[in-house]
Specification:
Helix content: 25-40%
Number of strands: 21
Strand content: 25-35%
Bound molecules: flavin-adenine dinucleotide
Radius of gyration: 22 Å
Number of helices: 12
């Protein structure tokens, strides 16, 4: 039998989403070699439409890592968001409430393209369309990743494995049972999302609480709107022709002063389930989980991509410390430090979701309680500061997280 092709690396990274690619890039800047493997094609990963809101800390990190040039040119910097309820819009001034922070609207797949570009510029290895991925030996001192690549059996012997393979990947399920604890919450609704060739009707994002359900106005570019409306988790898209979507969106964003969305051709449509999930700890021996492989948040707080970035920033730092000093002190704190931020983001995402959506069986009392909470957030500065600080992103050095 032919011997497997061997590609030696210090760190083997499974998954070329934002977590895996940014980790590879940060490690490269620290002089640590890695190999990335990805189950899909490069085209598929570059075209996958997902997140779009980058926290200030994410933007600062991408800039510091030298991959922010296009984001600075094409990203849309927003200094506020709007909460719409009782048919009135109320602006949350993120900039003044946080002492100068903002968010940047720049699509996740554009971040991914920039990271691919950077990796290619120094010839960092990425293997696409790999199959039958298995990870082994991470509970000892000889971890390895095995897979098939265009018919060849391959293996990556490495010092450490980073499981950046998303929620449905192989790394988390490879950890023997009894080691991880799972915390999960599934929401009884989903989001029907569209991309439309239509100038966004607002310069800033609008989160709408309507008695028939939540809606969100976001954007990708000055000419492309990204719109969502709350729907059933198993909503059948064939029941939603474009005119019905626009009619429902217009109703949910309606205000007393006559706000109207700009309509245009819809070129992408999908339903996203809403769930919260955390696996603890985020480490097993020499395997480290990062991003969606370890946790999922409902998209209401726009935290998923940003949490993935925070995880790999910590992991890159801890691995660099390990190669510089020979000690695993920082690596051993990886899970504990990341989980603090993960649970803060889980709380914020749950809070935003609870305040803005219509829940099954939600009666007049519940709706009025939500309106009271929204009134507080938009009229009491202390409450608005809590929203703004969390939305623009907590600083990287949370207590206990100082690097
Ligand atoms: C509709 C939607 C809207 C969202 N909006 C926001 C937002 O506004 N802000 C925000 O911060 N987050 C948002 N998110 C969440 C965000 O997209 C994710 O949190 C983010 O993609 C996590 O990145 P990741 O690299 O951890 O995982 P992924 O992006 O899932 O990447 C994992 C990679 O691993 C690959 N892979 C899987 N299995 C294997 C295997 N066996 N071998 C090799 N490779 C494998 C996958 O193909 C994939 O490329 C949104 C998500 C959705 C679905």
């Amino acid at each position: 039998m032919a011997l497997p092709k061997t590609i030696r690396a210090q760190v083997g990274i499974v998954g070329a989403g934002p977590a895996g690619l940014l980790l590879a890039h940060l490690l490269h800047l620290e002089g640590v070699e890695s190999v990335v493997i990805e189950a899909q094609s490069r085209k598929h990963v570059e075209e996958r439409v997902r997140a779009g809101v980058l926290e200030q800390g994410t933007v600062d990190l991408l800039n510091a890592a030298g991959v922010g040039e296009r984001m600075r040119r094409e990203g849309l910097v927003h200094y506020g968001i709007e909460l719409c309820f009782d048919r009135r819009g109320h602006r949350i001034d993120l900039h003044s409430l946080t002492g100068g922070r903002a968010i940047t609207v720049y699509a996740q797949h554009e971040v991914v393209k920039d990271l691919f570009q950077a990796r290619m510029s120094y010839g960092g290895p990425i293997l696409f369309e790999v199959e039958s991925v298995r990870i082994e030996g991470f509970d000892g001192d000889a971890p390895r990743i095995r897979f098939r690549s265009y018919g060849d059996e391959c293996e990556i012997p490495c010092d450490y494995i980073a499981g950046c393979d998303g929620f449905h990947g192989v790394c988390r399920p490879s950890i023997p049972s009894g080691i991880l604890r799972f915390y999960e919450k599934t929401y009884p609704f989903g989001w029907l999302g569209i991309l439309a060739e239509a100038k966004p009707a607002s310069d800033e994002l609008i989160y709408a609480n309507h008695e028939d359900g939540f809606a969100l106005l976001s954007m990708r570019t000055p000419r492309i709107s990204r719109l969502y409306l709350q729907c059933r988790p198993d909503e059948d898209l064939s029941e939603w022709p474009d005119p019905r979507i626009w009619e429902e969106l217009q109703r949910r964003f309606e205000t007393v002063d006559g706000f109207r969305l700009n309509e245009g051709p819809v070129f992408q449509k999908g339903v996203t389930a809403m769930r919260s999930f955390v696996a603890e700890p985020m480490q097993c021996g020499r395997l480290f989980l990062a991003g969606d492989a370890a946790h999922i948040v409902p998209p209401t707080g726009a935290k998923g991509l940003n949490l993935a970035v925070a995880d790999v920033r910590m992991l890159a730092h801890a691995l660099a410390c390990r190669y510089r000093t020979g000690t695993e002190q920082m690596l051993n704190r990886y899970s504990e430090i990341c989980l603090r931020r993960v649970w803060r983001a889980q709380h914020f995402s749950w809070w935003m979701t609870s305040m803005l959506h219509r829940f099954e069986g939600c009666d007049g009392f519940d709706h009025r309680r939500q309106l009271a909470e929204l009134n507080q957030v938009t009229s009491l500065r202390a409450a608005a500061v809590v929203l703004a600080e969390n939305y623009t992103g907590l600083p990287f050095d949370l207590p206990g997280e100082r690097l």
